[in-house]
Design brief:
The chain is mostly helical and 481 residues long. The protein has helices at residues 6-11, 16-27, 35-44, 69-93, 96-109, 113-129, 135-155, 160-192, 202-209, 211-214, 217-231, 234-247, 253-272, 278-291, 303-315, 319-328, 338-352, 356-369, 379-399, 402-418, 424-445, 453-462, 469-479. Among the domains are: 6-93, no CATH class; 423-481, no CATH class.
């Protein structure tokens, strides 16, 4: 009952340190006076942070607190409410600006105006010293201005200057938010090719062009990003790149990553349209963002980001730069996935250079590193493990490794059959790939095989979806020579 409860599922989202802080939160009489909740936490704390121990299923686990199932259910509901309160407190810990805003609001309500003005001056000086790098900073600056305006409204005759100061911070926050989210909405419409009721941008663009706002680097960045999405033309792409290179230091890494995704999506759209050279542009974006450590999170690179670099670098024949980057930055790969991601990327890189033996060794090492049960919970790991099996099948096909090919084709077929985390369409695509490569391998190795290349190709073309179809067609062509 406890192990499968919604409360335990929420607790699993916390790290061990966070679980300990939640326990401290429960033990604080200021936050919680429910002694049963403290007793419950004492019982389940030893199972943190995974909460997967079968002992959590024990019927009498909570007998020292309650024996009534309905009472336990009520307690678990209370724990969810306390968990939500804890998350609010945790969130506020990192929101110093918002905490100060709340403080000012409370001081104003209590007419503690001397302290109010002291906090306001401190916050105003802080904003002027420290550049604002994301939308939240500008939203907080507006809240500060609005709160000070309320104070002035109660205590003095307001001037046009007071109103204009409020409009400035209000418009700044509004324009940045509208540019970002209208651009995001328009981008979604382009990606999904669906109809979305994108609002008019006339008002925000006029405001963005006003001198008082156009001097803000973030306004210019988000405006050029919006115009790039809107017009989908090279001139706007080059303008966006120029603006980003000049001002990327004005952005948080998270904001810069989101904005560079706009440029990457533009390049992908152009590539799909049949235009050449855009993958080189994507590689240059990746190279710049990695050299400037924009794509790093907490000083680390994710396996997904590294995989994308290898794919783009291979496609554009930038093998040497990617390989050097991989070797020099192995220690910067997320610790949990480091060995897997390193060997997997080495394998993909070697395969794309035609170094099949080296690729095989690296991919087998990656397969070993990616096998532990704790890896199975990550969806991307399942996809990468499928990719490893496909690449190994291609290598064994090329090297005519009969025993290795036959062994892998059997185990891979079974794995795909049992997989539950991919949709049926993807599963069918992989199963069709397995069927065709198996037939082609038989044609290649067995002189008595009765199927012709023409019949295999016909079967391939009859399938509605087949993964790696382009590769299969190239092998049919090679075998037909």
């Amino acid at each position: 009952m406890v192990k499968k409860s919604k409360f335990i599922k929420l607790l699993k989202s916390l790290s061990l340190e966070e679980v300990k802080r939640f326990n401290d939160f429960l033990c604080s009489p200021y936050h919680n006076k429910n002694k049963k909740s403290v007793a419950l936490m004492e019982i389940i704390l030893p199972f943190a942070p995974e909460f997967t121990d079968p002992k959590l299923e024990n019927v009498g686990l909570l007998d020292s607190i309650y024996t009534n199932k309905n009472s336990i259910k009520t307690l678990l509901q209370t724990m969810i409410r306390l968990f939500e309160e804890f998350l609010i407190v945790e969130g506020l810990r990192s929101q110093e600006l918002y905490k100060k805003y709340i403080l000012m609001k409370e001081l104003r309500k209590r007419k503690s105006f001397n302290q109010f003005n002291s906090v306001y001056k401190q916050m105003k000086d802080n904003f002027e010293r420290k550049p604002q790098k994301d939308l939240l900073d500008f939203n907080h600056r507006y809240l500060l201005a609005a709160e000070y305006f309320q104070y002035l409204f109660l205590n003095k005759e307001l001037t046009s200057e007071d109103y204009n100061r409020l409009w400035y911070f209000m418009d700044q926050s509004y324009v940045l938010s509208r540019l970002k989210y209208t651009g995001s909405m328009l981008n979604k419409q382009r990606i999904k090719s669906g109809s979305m009721d994108v609002p008019s941008a006339d008002t925000m663009l006029k405001l963005a062009d006003e001198k008082r706002l156009s001097v803000n680097p973030l306004v210019n960045i988000y405006k050029t990003a919006y115009l790039l999405i809107l017009h989908n033309e090279d001139s706007y792409f080059h303008k966006f790149q120029e603006t980003m290179r000049k001002n990327h230091n004005c952005l948080t890494k998270e904001a810069a990553t989101e904005l560079y995704a706009v440029a990457i999506n533009f390049c992908i759209r152009k590539h799909v349209e049949g235009k050449s050279g855009y993958y080189n542009q994507i590689f240059q974006i990746y190279k710049f963002c990695l050299e400037e450590r924009i794509f790093y999170v907490n000083g680390m690179i994710s396996p997904q980001r590294l995989h994308n670099l290898v794919v783009i670098g291979s496609y554009t024949n930038n093998f040497e730069w990617v390989e050097n980057f991989l070797e020099q930055n192995k220690s910067s790969i997320e610790t949990e996935f480091r060995e897997f991601a390193y060997h997997y990327c080495k394998g993909v890189l070697n395969y794309n250079q035609g170094k099949l033996s080296e690729a095989s060794d690296a991919l087998l090492e990656a397969s070993f590193e990616g096998t532990p049960k704790n890896m199975a919970k990550y969806t991307f790991m399942k996809l990468y493990n499928i990719s490893i099996q496909i690449l190994l099948l291609k290598i064994y096909f090329e090297q005519v490794e009969v025993f290795a090919f036959d062994s892998l084709i059997k185990s891979f077929s079974e794995r795909i059959r049992l997989l539950k985390d991919i949709n049926q369409k993807e599963k069918n695509g992989h199963q069709n790939f397995i069927s065709i490569i198996k037939q082609l391998f038989r044609f290649k190795t067995d002189p008595n095989y009765k199927k012709s290349l023409e019949s295999i190709e016909t079967t391939l073309n009859e399938y509605s979806i087949t993964s790696n179809k382009k590769w299969l067609l190239s092998k049919i062509k090679e075998l037909g020579k």
